[in-house]
Each structure stands twice: as structure tokens, then as C-alpha cells.
Write a structure and sequence with these properties.
The protein has 263 residues and is an alpha/beta fold. The chain is 49% helix and 11% strand. Helix 2 runs antiparallel to helix 11.
Length: 263
């Protein structure tokens, strides 16, 4: 807290100085603050719109389903203005659960969703005790799903069932981030060996010999932010079209400029 107090000291001095100024000056300054705060938000929104147009250009089909261990997939649908066709919108899984899920998608998707109050992962329980407790459910008592962006079990179930109905099993896209949620080195090989035509492994470090991996050095836990940051390191539309990961294309170069200051 000593550091916080030192940081606030200049602010207290400015407040004391402002108290001696005419009221009119203070009022006009207050009127300017919302605009100054809104400008970066407006510019970021415009940047994201331009980026969405650039990145979805040439996309051959919007009929694909993203299976992601975090909100990366939902961010793709939302930012590119595409219909969401995944049961995992706004949801996440621990690494082991996610790989089990990918190992038998049809079987798990046909299993009933059962909501639970306590996670098998102690770190999750500690986090839920500190924050608002999001809904959780299991499939076949093996795969645990965390509905991180929902308030109730009813909302979570509705989203899950709608996603299952819209899922395109013939055009699946799978994405796994290896640097969180209990991921271990062995999970890298297991994911790389999965028989999906379109699969992407995101890591903050280089993974030599893993063809489906891209390195995103400025790593953050937030899946939506990682979606934008990952666009600086591979051509997403080309990957969705062909399953090939291209790391150096004109589109990737434009994204490095467009998202130079992060997500």
C-alpha cells in the first residue's frame, strides 16, 4: 500500500491546486474527460472493424465449428460477424478435460449435461470462492465444463444445447492454448496427434517439431485478447479454408501493424 500512496500523491497535489481555480475552469475540464476517455474506445472499435474485414476476406465458408478450450472461438465468431456454431461459446475447460473431450466428441456431445457445485480442480474452487461462482457441469462424470460468462445453469444449458444443434461435425476447427489451465508438456504431443484437419496450438514459447503450433510471445490468459494477438502470427482465414498454417502472408503483416499495441 505504500506504493499506492506514493502513486496517489501527485493526484492529491493537483486536486489541491484545482481547488483555487475558478469554478468555470473546473466544470469545463470535467466536460472534457468523457470525450478523452471515449476516444481510445472508439478508435479501438474502428480498428477491430477494419481488422475483421481484412481477416475474414477470402473466407470460403462460414459453416464451421470452433472447439476451443477458452473464449478464443467465440471471439472469432463475434468479431468476424459470423453465426456461432459451437456449444463452448463463453465456456472453458481444463487441459486434461479438453483433450478427453476432443478424443470422443460425438460420445460426449450426446451425453447429458449434469451441473455440479464443486470442481475436481482445487485451483478452480479457490478462484470461484474469491469471485462470482460461474455455473459448472460435467459430461459422463469425466469432462468438466466451466460456463465462465453465464450467470445461471439455465442460461448455460440453453447455450450448450443451441451450440450442439448448430454444430458442424464435418467441418471442425480445434484450438488449444497450452500455457494455462493445468496444461502439461505431454498434452502438446497428445493434441498434435489428434486426427483433425484444422487444429491450432497456441503457446508463448517456440515448440520445434509441432507443425500445428504458433508462438504468441505477448501471451495473456484472456481468450478473446489472445484471438486478436494470434492474428499477428498466422493467417486465420487461410487456415480455416485449408487447414494449413501460414505464418508469413500479407494479411499477417497487416495484422502486425493493426494490432501493434496489443488487443
Amino acid at each position: 500500500m505504500a506504493t499506492d500512496q506514493a502513486a496517489f500523491a501527485p493526484t492529491r497535489n493537483r486536486i489541491q491546486q484545482a481547488a483555487s481555480l475558478p469554478q468555470a475552469v473546473d466544470v469545463s475540464a470535467k466536460k472534457l474527460r468523457p470525450a478523452s476517455k471515449a476516444l481510445p474506445t472508439i478508435l479501438k472499435s474502428l480498428r477491430n472493424q477494419v481488422g475483421a474485414g481484412i481477416n475474414r476476406y477470402g473466407l470460403e465458408s462460414a459453416d464451421f465449428s470452433v472447439i476451443s478450450n477458452d473464449c478464443w472461438g467465440q471471439a472469432l465468431y463475434q468479431e468476424w460477424g459470423l453465426p456461432c456454431k459451437t456449444p463452448l461459446a463463453g465456456s472453458g475447460m481444463h487441459a486434461e478435460c479438453f483433450l478427453r473431450f476432443l478424443g470422443d466428441l460425438p460420445g460426449y456431445l450426446s451425453s447429458p449435461l449434469r451441473f455440479i457445485q464443486t470442481s475436481r480442480h482445487p485451483s478452480v474452487n479457490r478462484l470461484r470462492n474469491r469471485r462470482q461462482k460461474w455455473p459448472m457441469a460435467v459430461l459422463r462424470d469425466e469432462v468438466e465444463i466451466h460456463f465462465l460468462h453465464y450467470n445461471t445453469e439455465e442460461e448455460s444449458r440453453e447455450s450448450w444445447e443451441a451450440g450442439c444443434q448448430n454444430l458442424n461435425l464435418d467441418r471442425l476447427v480445434v484450438k488449444f492454448t497450452i500455457d494455462k489451465d493445468g496444461a502439461q508438456p505431454a498434452h502438446i504431443t497428445r493434441f498434435a496427434e489428434l486426427p483433425f484437419e484444422r487444429k491450432l496450438l497456441i503457446s508463448e514459447r517456440k515448440l520445434p517439431g509441432i507443425d500445428c503450433a504458433i508462438q504468441v510471445p505477448n501471451y495473456v490468459i484472456n481468450g478473446a485478447m489472445m484471438f486478436r494477438r494470434s492474428l499477428r502470427h498466422f493467417d486465420c482465414a487461410h487456415w480455416l479454408n485449408t487447414g494449413e498454417i501460414r505464418r508469413q502472408t500479407p494479411r499477417v503483416f497487416l495484422n502486425k501493424l493493426l494490432y501493434a499495441r496489443g488487443a
